[in-house]
Amino acid sequence: MNEKRYYQKEIETMPREQLRALQSEKLVRQVRHVYDHVPYYRDLMDKKGVKPEDIRGVDDLHLLPFISKEDLRETYPTGMLAVPKADCVRIQSTSGTTGKRVIAYYTQKDLDLWEDCCARAIVAAGGSREDVVQVSYGYGLFTGGPGLNGGSHKVGSLTLPMSSGNTERQIQFMLDLGATILCCTPSYAAYIGETLKEMGYGPDDIPLKAGIFGAEPWTQEIRENIENTLGIKAYDIYGLTEISGPGVSFECEEQRGMHINEDHFIAEIIDPNTGEVLPEGTKGELVFTCLDKEAFPVLRYRTRDICVLSSEPCSCGRTHIRMQKPMGRSDDMMIIRGVNVFPSQIEAVLLKKGYSPNYMIEVDRKNNSDTLDVFVELTPEQFADTVREISAMERSLESAIHTMIGISPKVRLVAPKTIARSEGKAVRVVDKRKLHD
Ligand code: ADP
Ligand code: ZN
Fold first, then answer.
1. From ligand 1's centre to the CA of 294, what distance in Å?
2. Quick check: CB of 303 below 6 Å from ligand 1?
3. Angle (CA) 120 126 127, round 5°
4. Å from CA of 372 to ligand 1 middle
5. Which of 1, 126, 228, 270 has fewest C-beta within 10 Å?
6. Residues sharing a CB contact under 8 Å with residue 53, sequence separation 6 or more, in sequence order
7. Rounded distance between C-alpha atoms, residue 20 and residue 22, angstroms
8. Could you tell me which CATH class the domain 1-327 is placed in?
Protein backbone atom coordinates (compact mmCIF):
# COMPACT_ATOMS: atom_id res chain seq x y z
CA MET A 1 0.00 0.00 0.00
CA ASN A 2 1.26 3.46 -0.88
CA GLU A 3 1.92 5.97 1.82
CA LYS A 4 -1.43 7.39 2.90
CA ARG A 5 -2.19 10.77 1.48
CA TYR A 6 -4.25 13.52 2.99
CA TYR A 7 -4.74 17.16 2.15
CA GLN A 8 -5.08 18.31 5.78
CA LYS A 9 -3.78 15.38 7.75
CA GLU A 10 -4.19 16.68 11.26
CA ILE A 11 -7.87 17.52 10.76
CA GLU A 12 -8.71 14.51 8.61
CA THR A 13 -7.26 12.04 11.10
CA MET A 14 -8.14 13.87 14.32
CA PRO A 15 -9.27 11.53 17.15
CA ARG A 16 -13.06 11.60 17.34
CA GLU A 17 -13.19 12.93 20.90
CA GLN A 18 -11.05 15.87 19.96
CA LEU A 19 -13.12 16.41 16.83
CA ARG A 20 -16.28 16.51 18.90
CA ALA A 21 -14.79 19.08 21.25
CA LEU A 22 -13.83 21.18 18.25
CA GLN A 23 -17.37 20.90 16.87
CA SER A 24 -18.86 21.92 20.20
CA GLU A 25 -16.69 24.98 20.46
CA LYS A 26 -17.53 26.04 16.91
CA LEU A 27 -21.24 25.32 17.32
CA VAL A 28 -21.59 27.63 20.33
CA ARG A 29 -19.97 30.42 18.37
CA GLN A 30 -21.99 29.75 15.22
CA VAL A 31 -25.38 29.69 16.97
CA ARG A 32 -24.62 33.08 18.47
CA HIS A 33 -23.60 34.42 15.05
CA VAL A 34 -26.79 33.20 13.40
CA TYR A 35 -29.07 34.35 16.24
CA ASP A 36 -27.57 37.81 16.16
CA HIS A 37 -27.57 38.26 12.37
CA VAL A 38 -30.43 36.24 10.84
CA PRO A 39 -33.80 37.55 12.10
CA TYR A 40 -35.66 34.71 10.36
CA TYR A 41 -33.77 32.04 12.31
CA ARG A 42 -33.90 34.08 15.52
CA ASP A 43 -37.68 33.99 15.24
CA LEU A 44 -37.63 30.23 14.72
CA MET A 45 -35.49 29.84 17.85
CA ASP A 46 -37.66 32.22 19.85
CA LYS A 47 -40.78 30.32 18.82
CA LYS A 48 -39.16 27.11 20.01
CA GLY A 49 -38.08 28.80 23.24
CA VAL A 50 -34.36 28.20 22.63
CA LYS A 51 -31.75 30.85 23.42
CA PRO A 52 -28.15 30.81 22.15
CA GLU A 53 -26.92 30.23 25.72
CA ASP A 54 -28.89 26.94 25.83
CA ILE A 55 -26.50 25.51 23.24
CA ARG A 56 -23.34 24.54 25.09
CA GLY A 57 -22.12 21.88 22.69
CA VAL A 58 -23.04 19.18 20.18
CA ASP A 59 -25.20 17.40 22.78
CA ASP A 60 -27.60 20.37 22.69
CA LEU A 61 -27.89 20.46 18.90
CA HIS A 62 -31.27 18.68 18.94
CA LEU A 63 -32.80 21.71 20.70
CA LEU A 64 -32.38 23.89 17.61
CA PRO A 65 -35.13 24.26 14.98
CA PHE A 66 -34.70 22.74 11.53
CA ILE A 67 -34.34 24.69 8.31
CA SER A 68 -35.96 23.27 5.19
CA LYS A 69 -35.72 24.09 1.52
CA GLU A 70 -39.07 25.90 1.92
CA ASP A 71 -37.51 28.24 4.51
CA LEU A 72 -34.74 29.05 2.05
CA ARG A 73 -37.23 29.70 -0.70
CA GLU A 74 -39.28 31.89 1.61
CA THR A 75 -36.25 33.97 2.55
CA TYR A 76 -35.05 34.26 -1.07
CA PRO A 77 -32.81 35.96 -1.95
CA THR A 78 -31.12 37.53 1.11
CA GLY A 79 -33.18 36.52 4.13
CA MET A 80 -30.62 34.02 5.43
CA LEU A 81 -27.63 36.25 4.87
CA ALA A 82 -25.64 36.59 8.11
CA VAL A 83 -23.04 39.18 7.04
CA PRO A 84 -23.31 42.49 5.15
CA LYS A 85 -23.62 41.89 1.42
CA ALA A 86 -20.43 43.90 0.93
CA ASP A 87 -18.51 41.16 2.78
CA CYS A 88 -19.60 38.53 0.22
CA VAL A 89 -17.54 37.76 -2.85
CA ARG A 90 -19.59 35.05 -4.62
CA ILE A 91 -23.10 33.82 -5.29
CA GLN A 92 -23.94 30.27 -6.39
CA SER A 93 -27.29 28.59 -6.68
CA THR A 94 -28.80 25.11 -6.58
CA SER A 95 -29.63 23.37 -9.82
CA GLY A 96 -33.31 23.75 -9.09
CA THR A 97 -33.86 20.01 -9.52
CA THR A 98 -36.88 20.07 -7.22
CA GLY A 99 -38.22 23.58 -7.73
CA LYS A 100 -37.20 27.20 -7.40
CA ARG A 101 -33.48 27.71 -7.09
CA VAL A 102 -31.91 28.50 -3.74
CA ILE A 103 -29.28 31.25 -3.70
CA ALA A 104 -26.18 30.88 -1.52
CA TYR A 105 -23.68 33.63 -0.62
CA TYR A 106 -20.00 33.17 0.19
CA THR A 107 -17.34 35.29 1.86
CA GLN A 108 -13.73 34.68 0.87
CA LYS A 109 -13.33 32.50 3.96
CA ASP A 110 -16.40 30.47 2.92
CA LEU A 111 -14.88 29.88 -0.51
CA ASP A 112 -11.57 28.81 1.03
CA LEU A 113 -13.29 26.34 3.28
CA TRP A 114 -15.32 24.88 0.42
CA GLU A 115 -12.31 24.58 -1.87
CA ASP A 116 -10.33 22.89 0.93
CA CYS A 117 -13.10 20.29 1.14
CA CYS A 118 -12.85 19.67 -2.61
CA ALA A 119 -9.06 19.48 -2.33
CA ARG A 120 -9.42 16.75 0.31
CA ALA A 121 -11.56 14.79 -2.15
CA ILE A 122 -9.06 15.18 -4.98
CA VAL A 123 -6.14 14.07 -2.82
CA ALA A 124 -8.17 11.12 -1.52
CA ALA A 125 -8.69 10.06 -5.14
CA GLY A 126 -4.94 10.08 -5.67
CA GLY A 127 -4.56 13.64 -6.96
CA SER A 128 -1.41 15.72 -6.50
CA ARG A 129 0.42 18.59 -8.14
CA GLU A 130 1.58 16.13 -10.80
CA ASP A 131 -1.99 15.66 -12.03
CA VAL A 132 -4.03 17.30 -14.74
CA VAL A 133 -7.59 17.67 -13.48
CA GLN A 134 -10.26 18.00 -16.14
CA VAL A 135 -13.31 19.67 -14.62
CA SER A 136 -16.31 18.79 -16.79
CA TYR A 137 -19.01 19.79 -14.33
CA GLY A 138 -20.95 22.82 -15.47
CA TYR A 139 -19.42 26.17 -14.56
CA GLY A 140 -21.60 29.09 -13.58
CA LEU A 141 -24.20 29.24 -10.86
CA PHE A 142 -24.01 25.46 -10.41
CA THR A 143 -21.46 24.62 -7.72
CA GLY A 144 -19.93 21.58 -9.46
CA GLY A 145 -17.48 23.38 -11.77
CA PRO A 146 -16.34 26.21 -9.46
CA GLY A 147 -15.97 23.85 -6.46
CA LEU A 148 -13.73 21.26 -8.08
CA ASN A 149 -11.89 24.00 -9.96
CA GLY A 150 -10.98 25.68 -6.66
CA GLY A 151 -10.08 22.36 -5.05
CA SER A 152 -7.80 21.45 -7.91
CA HIS A 153 -5.99 24.79 -7.60
CA LYS A 154 -5.50 24.21 -3.88
CA VAL A 155 -3.94 20.82 -4.53
CA GLY A 156 -1.68 22.48 -7.09
CA SER A 157 -2.91 20.26 -9.92
CA LEU A 158 -2.98 21.62 -13.44
CA THR A 159 -6.64 22.54 -13.84
CA LEU A 160 -8.50 22.17 -17.11
CA PRO A 161 -11.77 24.11 -16.76
CA MET A 162 -13.70 22.40 -19.55
CA SER A 163 -17.22 22.78 -18.16
CA SER A 164 -19.76 20.33 -19.62
CA GLY A 165 -20.76 19.81 -23.23
CA ASN A 166 -18.97 19.44 -26.55
CA THR A 167 -18.08 15.87 -25.71
CA GLU A 168 -15.75 15.14 -28.63
CA ARG A 169 -13.68 18.18 -27.70
CA GLN A 170 -13.60 16.92 -24.09
CA ILE A 171 -11.98 13.74 -25.33
CA GLN A 172 -9.60 15.51 -27.70
CA PHE A 173 -8.36 17.76 -24.88
CA MET A 174 -8.11 14.83 -22.50
CA LEU A 175 -5.79 13.15 -25.00
CA ASP A 176 -3.82 16.23 -26.07
CA LEU A 177 -3.33 17.68 -22.59
CA GLY A 178 -2.92 14.46 -20.66
CA ALA A 179 -5.82 14.70 -18.21
CA THR A 180 -5.37 12.18 -15.40
CA ILE A 181 -8.42 12.97 -13.24
CA LEU A 182 -11.91 13.65 -14.59
CA CYS A 183 -14.57 15.46 -12.52
CA CYS A 184 -18.19 15.49 -13.75
CA THR A 185 -21.59 13.96 -13.07
CA PRO A 186 -21.67 10.16 -13.35
CA SER A 187 -24.25 10.38 -16.13
CA TYR A 188 -21.91 12.64 -18.10
CA ALA A 189 -18.98 10.32 -17.41
CA ALA A 190 -21.01 7.46 -18.90
CA TYR A 191 -21.74 9.61 -21.95
CA ILE A 192 -18.06 10.54 -22.32
CA GLY A 193 -17.26 6.80 -22.16
CA GLU A 194 -19.79 6.07 -24.88
CA THR A 195 -18.42 8.84 -27.10
CA LEU A 196 -14.86 7.65 -26.55
CA LYS A 197 -15.81 4.28 -27.92
CA GLU A 198 -17.59 5.82 -30.89
CA MET A 199 -14.47 7.82 -31.69
CA GLY A 200 -12.59 4.54 -31.92
CA TYR A 201 -10.66 4.75 -28.65
CA GLY A 202 -10.46 2.28 -25.79
CA PRO A 203 -9.68 2.80 -22.11
CA ASP A 204 -5.96 2.21 -22.73
CA ASP A 205 -5.75 5.09 -25.16
CA ILE A 206 -6.51 7.80 -22.61
CA PRO A 207 -4.30 9.03 -19.75
CA LEU A 208 -7.08 9.12 -17.11
CA LYS A 209 -6.49 7.21 -13.86
CA ALA A 210 -9.37 8.38 -11.67
CA GLY A 211 -12.69 10.16 -11.75
CA ILE A 212 -14.54 12.15 -9.08
CA PHE A 213 -18.22 11.90 -9.80
CA GLY A 214 -21.25 13.24 -7.94
CA ALA A 215 -24.11 15.72 -7.84
CA GLU A 216 -26.68 13.00 -8.55
CA PRO A 217 -27.45 9.48 -7.34
CA TRP A 218 -25.65 6.66 -9.15
CA THR A 219 -25.59 2.93 -8.69
CA GLN A 220 -22.71 0.51 -8.22
CA GLU A 221 -23.57 -0.81 -11.69
CA ILE A 222 -23.02 2.62 -13.27
CA ARG A 223 -19.75 2.84 -11.38
CA GLU A 224 -18.56 -0.40 -12.93
CA ASN A 225 -19.73 0.70 -16.37
CA ILE A 226 -17.73 3.95 -16.12
CA GLU A 227 -14.66 2.25 -14.62
CA ASN A 228 -14.60 -0.21 -17.52
CA THR A 229 -15.22 2.18 -20.37
CA LEU A 230 -12.77 4.82 -19.13
CA GLY A 231 -10.29 2.44 -17.48
CA ILE A 232 -10.24 4.35 -14.20
CA LYS A 233 -11.15 4.12 -10.54
CA ALA A 234 -14.35 6.09 -9.94
CA TYR A 235 -14.76 8.00 -6.66
CA ASP A 236 -17.97 9.40 -5.29
CA ILE A 237 -18.32 12.98 -4.04
CA TYR A 238 -21.39 14.48 -2.39
CA GLY A 239 -22.51 17.95 -1.59
CA LEU A 240 -25.21 20.54 -1.87
CA THR A 241 -25.23 24.25 -2.49
CA GLU A 242 -27.01 25.06 0.77
CA ILE A 243 -24.09 23.60 2.74
CA SER A 244 -21.36 24.90 0.33
CA GLY A 245 -21.30 22.64 -2.74
CA PRO A 246 -19.49 19.42 -3.71
CA GLY A 247 -17.04 18.16 -1.11
CA VAL A 248 -19.34 18.05 1.91
CA SER A 249 -18.29 14.40 1.85
CA PHE A 250 -16.07 12.27 -0.37
CA GLU A 251 -14.84 8.74 -0.85
CA CYS A 252 -11.40 7.53 0.20
CA GLU A 253 -9.64 4.52 -1.35
CA GLU A 254 -11.64 2.18 0.88
CA GLN A 255 -14.83 3.23 -0.99
CA ARG A 256 -17.20 2.21 1.73
CA GLY A 257 -19.14 5.40 2.23
CA MET A 258 -18.12 9.03 1.99
CA HIS A 259 -16.24 10.80 4.82
CA ILE A 260 -18.14 13.90 5.90
CA ASN A 261 -15.88 16.91 6.57
CA GLU A 262 -16.93 16.99 10.19
CA ASP A 263 -14.67 19.82 11.25
CA HIS A 264 -16.95 22.05 9.15
CA PHE A 265 -20.29 20.23 9.15
CA ILE A 266 -22.18 18.27 11.79
CA ALA A 267 -24.35 15.49 10.34
CA GLU A 268 -27.45 14.02 11.95
CA ILE A 269 -29.95 11.43 10.77
CA ILE A 270 -33.59 12.09 11.59
CA ASP A 271 -36.90 10.39 11.05
CA PRO A 272 -38.32 12.39 8.11
CA ASN A 273 -41.85 12.15 9.48
CA THR A 274 -41.33 13.02 13.15
CA GLY A 275 -38.03 14.96 13.10
CA GLU A 276 -36.71 12.71 15.86
CA VAL A 277 -32.92 12.15 15.86
CA LEU A 278 -32.15 8.52 15.07
CA PRO A 279 -29.24 6.47 16.43
CA GLU A 280 -26.17 5.94 14.27
CA GLY A 281 -26.65 3.14 11.76
CA THR A 282 -30.34 3.86 11.23
CA LYS A 283 -31.58 4.94 7.82
CA GLY A 284 -33.17 8.35 7.69
CA GLU A 285 -32.96 11.92 6.42
CA LEU A 286 -29.59 13.61 6.52
CA VAL A 287 -29.42 16.96 8.34
CA PHE A 288 -26.41 19.30 8.28
CA THR A 289 -25.24 22.13 10.51
CA CYS A 290 -22.54 24.44 9.13
CA LEU A 291 -19.95 25.26 11.78
CA ASP A 292 -17.65 27.71 10.04
CA LYS A 293 -19.58 29.36 7.27
CA GLU A 294 -19.99 33.11 7.64
CA ALA A 295 -22.33 34.35 4.89
CA PHE A 296 -24.91 31.58 4.62
CA PRO A 297 -24.59 29.50 7.77
CA VAL A 298 -27.58 27.15 7.83
CA LEU A 299 -28.21 25.22 11.03
CA ARG A 300 -29.92 21.82 11.04
CA TYR A 301 -30.68 21.95 7.32
CA ARG A 302 -32.92 19.11 6.16
CA THR A 303 -31.40 17.75 2.94
CA ARG A 304 -34.20 15.27 2.08
CA ASP A 305 -31.39 12.87 1.17
CA ILE A 306 -31.94 9.47 2.71
CA CYS A 307 -28.91 7.57 4.00
CA VAL A 308 -27.11 5.92 6.93
CA LEU A 309 -24.06 7.14 8.92
CA SER A 310 -21.20 5.07 10.29
CA SER A 311 -18.32 6.14 12.53
CA GLU A 312 -16.62 2.74 12.38
CA PRO A 313 -12.87 3.20 11.92
CA CYS A 314 -11.76 3.33 8.28
CA SER A 315 -8.57 1.72 7.00
CA CYS A 316 -7.60 4.97 5.26
CA GLY A 317 -6.90 6.53 8.66
CA ARG A 318 -9.51 9.26 8.34
CA THR A 319 -11.62 9.54 11.45
CA HIS A 320 -14.51 11.51 10.01
CA ILE A 321 -17.87 9.77 9.95
CA ARG A 322 -18.96 8.13 6.70
CA MET A 323 -22.32 8.46 4.99
CA GLN A 324 -23.68 5.78 2.77
CA LYS A 325 -24.36 6.96 -0.73
CA PRO A 326 -27.83 8.53 -0.88
CA MET A 327 -29.84 6.63 -3.45
CA GLY A 328 -32.32 9.37 -4.10
CA ARG A 329 -34.01 12.03 -2.10
CA SER A 330 -37.23 11.55 -0.26
CA ASP A 331 -38.81 13.62 -3.03
CA ASP A 332 -37.29 11.49 -5.85
CA MET A 333 -39.21 8.56 -4.50
CA MET A 334 -42.14 7.65 -6.70
CA ILE A 335 -45.23 6.15 -5.19
CA ILE A 336 -46.70 3.90 -7.85
CA ARG A 337 -49.84 1.96 -7.03
CA GLY A 338 -49.02 2.57 -3.39
CA VAL A 339 -45.53 1.09 -3.65
CA ASN A 340 -42.39 3.16 -2.96
CA VAL A 341 -40.03 3.06 -5.93
CA PHE A 342 -36.65 4.75 -6.43
CA PRO A 343 -35.41 5.23 -10.02
CA SER A 344 -32.03 3.85 -8.90
CA GLN A 345 -33.62 0.43 -8.27
CA ILE A 346 -34.73 0.24 -11.89
CA GLU A 347 -31.34 1.45 -13.08
CA ALA A 348 -29.60 -1.30 -11.13
CA VAL A 349 -31.70 -3.98 -12.86
CA LEU A 350 -31.05 -2.55 -16.34
CA LEU A 351 -27.29 -2.44 -15.92
CA LYS A 352 -27.12 -5.86 -14.28
CA LYS A 353 -28.89 -7.28 -17.31
CA GLY A 354 -26.38 -5.71 -19.68
CA TYR A 355 -28.33 -2.72 -20.91
CA SER A 356 -26.96 0.79 -21.34
CA PRO A 357 -27.47 3.48 -18.69
CA ASN A 358 -29.65 5.34 -21.19
CA TYR A 359 -33.21 4.98 -20.02
CA MET A 360 -36.30 7.02 -19.24
CA ILE A 361 -39.05 6.31 -16.74
CA GLU A 362 -42.56 7.54 -17.39
CA VAL A 363 -45.29 7.41 -14.77
CA ASP A 364 -48.88 8.21 -15.61
CA ARG A 365 -52.40 7.51 -14.43
CA LYS A 366 -54.87 5.79 -16.73
CA ASN A 367 -58.35 4.64 -15.74
CA ASN A 368 -57.57 5.53 -12.12
CA SER A 369 -54.56 3.27 -12.03
CA ASP A 370 -50.87 4.24 -12.09
CA THR A 371 -48.83 3.11 -15.06
CA LEU A 372 -45.07 2.66 -15.17
CA ASP A 373 -43.30 2.70 -18.54
CA VAL A 374 -39.57 2.16 -18.80
CA PHE A 375 -37.89 3.08 -22.09
CA VAL A 376 -34.50 1.44 -22.45
CA GLU A 377 -32.09 2.13 -25.23
CA LEU A 378 -30.40 -0.76 -26.99
CA THR A 379 -26.70 -0.50 -27.72
CA PRO A 380 -25.81 -0.64 -31.44
CA GLU A 381 -24.56 -4.25 -30.94
CA GLN A 382 -27.76 -5.34 -29.20
CA PHE A 383 -29.79 -3.59 -31.86
CA ALA A 384 -28.06 -5.41 -34.71
CA ASP A 385 -28.18 -8.80 -32.98
CA THR A 386 -31.55 -9.02 -31.50
CA VAL A 387 -34.22 -7.30 -33.51
CA ARG A 388 -36.34 -10.44 -33.65
CA GLU A 389 -36.04 -11.20 -29.96
CA ILE A 390 -37.03 -7.79 -28.74
CA SER A 391 -40.34 -8.79 -27.34
CA ALA A 392 -38.81 -11.67 -25.34
CA MET A 393 -36.14 -9.31 -24.01
CA GLU A 394 -38.80 -6.83 -22.96
CA ARG A 395 -40.74 -9.49 -21.06
CA SER A 396 -37.60 -10.67 -19.32
CA LEU A 397 -36.74 -7.12 -18.19
CA GLU A 398 -40.30 -6.57 -17.01
CA SER A 399 -40.09 -9.61 -14.83
CA ALA A 400 -36.68 -8.64 -13.41
CA ILE A 401 -37.93 -5.14 -12.55
CA HIS A 402 -41.06 -6.63 -11.02
CA THR A 403 -38.90 -8.80 -8.78
CA MET A 404 -36.91 -5.74 -7.68
CA ILE A 405 -39.69 -3.26 -6.98
CA GLY A 406 -42.80 -5.37 -6.54
CA ILE A 407 -44.90 -3.94 -9.34
CA SER A 408 -45.03 -4.64 -13.06
CA PRO A 409 -43.74 -2.06 -15.49
CA LYS A 410 -44.14 -1.94 -19.22
CA VAL A 411 -40.70 -2.05 -20.82
CA ARG A 412 -40.01 -0.75 -24.32
CA LEU A 413 -36.65 -1.26 -25.90
CA VAL A 414 -35.84 1.59 -28.22
CA ALA A 415 -33.25 2.18 -30.95
CA PRO A 416 -29.76 3.50 -30.15
CA LYS A 417 -29.44 7.27 -29.67
CA THR A 418 -33.12 7.92 -29.18
CA ILE A 419 -32.89 8.89 -25.50
CA ALA A 420 -31.36 12.29 -24.70
CA ARG A 421 -27.90 12.18 -23.09
CA SER A 422 -27.08 14.20 -19.99
CA GLU A 423 -24.18 16.62 -19.71
CA GLY A 424 -25.09 17.61 -16.15
CA LYS A 425 -27.61 16.14 -13.77
CA ALA A 426 -29.65 13.51 -15.59
CA VAL A 427 -33.43 13.81 -15.63
CA ARG A 428 -34.75 10.28 -15.95
CA VAL A 429 -38.27 10.42 -14.62
CA VAL A 430 -41.29 12.05 -16.19
CA ASP A 431 -44.27 11.93 -13.88
CA LYS A 432 -47.26 12.84 -16.00
CA ARG A 433 -49.63 12.34 -13.07
CA LYS A 434 -48.50 15.72 -11.78
CA LEU A 435 -49.77 17.32 -14.99
CA HIS A 436 -53.28 15.93 -14.49
CA ASP A 437 -53.60 16.80 -10.80
P1 ADP B 1 -30.54 20.72 -6.31
O2 ADP B 1 -31.10 20.42 -4.96
O3 ADP B 1 -31.31 21.78 -7.03
O4 ADP B 1 -30.26 19.53 -7.16
P5 ADP B 1 -27.67 20.97 -5.85
O6 ADP B 1 -27.07 21.18 -7.19
O7 ADP B 1 -27.08 21.72 -4.72
O8 ADP B 1 -29.17 21.40 -5.96
O9 ADP B 1 -27.66 19.41 -5.58
C10 ADP B 1 -27.58 18.81 -4.31
C11 ADP B 1 -28.23 17.46 -4.30
O12 ADP B 1 -27.66 16.59 -5.29
C13 ADP B 1 -28.06 16.72 -3.00
O14 ADP B 1 -28.98 17.13 -2.02
C15 ADP B 1 -28.28 15.27 -3.43
O16 ADP B 1 -29.65 14.97 -3.52
C17 ADP B 1 -27.69 15.24 -4.83
N18 ADP B 1 -26.32 14.68 -4.79
C19 ADP B 1 -25.17 15.37 -4.77
N20 ADP B 1 -24.10 14.53 -4.77
C21 ADP B 1 -24.59 13.27 -4.77
C22 ADP B 1 -23.99 11.96 -4.77
N23 ADP B 1 -22.68 11.78 -4.78
N24 ADP B 1 -24.83 10.90 -4.74
C25 ADP B 1 -26.17 11.06 -4.73
N26 ADP B 1 -26.79 12.26 -4.75
C27 ADP B 1 -26.01 13.36 -4.78
ZN1 ZN C 1 -11.65 6.16 4.59
1. 22
2. yes
3. 70
4. 25
5. 1
6. none
7. 5
8. alpha beta
